[in-house]
Structure prediction request, 368 residues.
Amino acid sequence: MPKKISDLVLLIIFSSFLWLPLYGFFIADKKIYSPNEKRTLAQKPEFSSIKTLDFFVKDYTSYFNDHFGYRERLVGSYNKVLNLLGVSSTSKKVIEGKNGWYFYAGDAVIDQYSTSFTEDELQKWAQHLEQKRQWLEQRGIVYLFVIPPNSHTIYSEFMPDWFLQTKKESRKDQLLSYLQKHTKVDVLDLAPALLEVKKSTLVYYKTDTHWNRLGASVARYEIEKKLHQRIPSISPASYLNDDFIWSPRPESGDLAVMLGLDKNIREDAPFFDNPKMQSCDQNIPVQSYGFKFRGLPPQATECDGQLKLLIFHDSYAYGLEALALNFKKVVYLWRFADDMKVLEHYVNVEKPDVVIEERVERFLSDVP
Prediction:
């Protein structure tokens, strides 16, 4: 091939690579939420007047950066190259730990171990939870506030050395102590039980922000034990390591996805399909009544029990499905009960015997 023609071909190829992301920006569907980054993406701003031009340019720049053509693929490829070269994570939301562990750094989670709640924040938490407890108790409803710990709390030994050097009393432990002294709220901290079981087996994923099925089973058992103290008819079903089969996890952990390494980093996980759940009717749609929810829409599970459970939760409700075996109906609401209107509405509609509010440790910083 003559040199001039080969140069022209190279120029065309090079130019195509330069223009491809811009082309992708204009033709691709614009996402609202990025699972890779666990955040809402900037949306296209509307130009209103020349007076607001500065704000429009700033907002449009954010919009363009968030929707840059093939952005997630390019970032993923970049991280794959760095991974092959042994270079640490480039994502600000992922911390590379020791022995193949990764930890979430979003939602100001690291601050929970280096800074404390103020007295005013602790009072707000106490007043908020006590208000709900009293309101529910007046209606004969048991209220339980459940805190799943961050993976940083359970596997802190695999965090980088700088974390271990700055770590002090966590906000979770600070809040637990305050609530015990100033409220009658029934709080279940799941950290002690998980720390005990982790001595013999993994209870969290190495490449995910969540506990695994075995860790969730430990949590379910502890919740049932706690409820049994108030309602004897609730029977705690113990977990057994032998019930779980370890095999390669079919999907990647969300931390691996954030790094764009979802096809490169996989791990084994414990699996157990509880045969008793086959008798339950699951994924029954529940009306949202105009309220907003973080993840899945409201849904219910119906089993053969006598009681009703209303559970406000985040993504850590993953693996707690077998709680339903102690109930006639369980209604799952993927949001927190920070708005009393939501709590009051669903209590009046569903008439539960028990209300559980499950809130993972990192979300405790969101003072209601």
Notes: Residues 3-27 form the longest helix (25 residues).
